[in-house]
Amino acid sequence: MAVQLNTSPRAACAMVCPLPHVPGAVSVVRGRVRALLADWNVFPELVEDCLLVVSELLTNAIVHALPPAELRLSWARGDGLGTLRVEVTDGGPACPAGQSAAEIDPDEHGRGEEIVHALATRHGMSVHSGGVTRWADLVAA
Question: How far is CA 137 from CA 46, 111, 116, 121, 128, in A?
Answer without folding.
Answer: 10, 18, 10, 6, 20
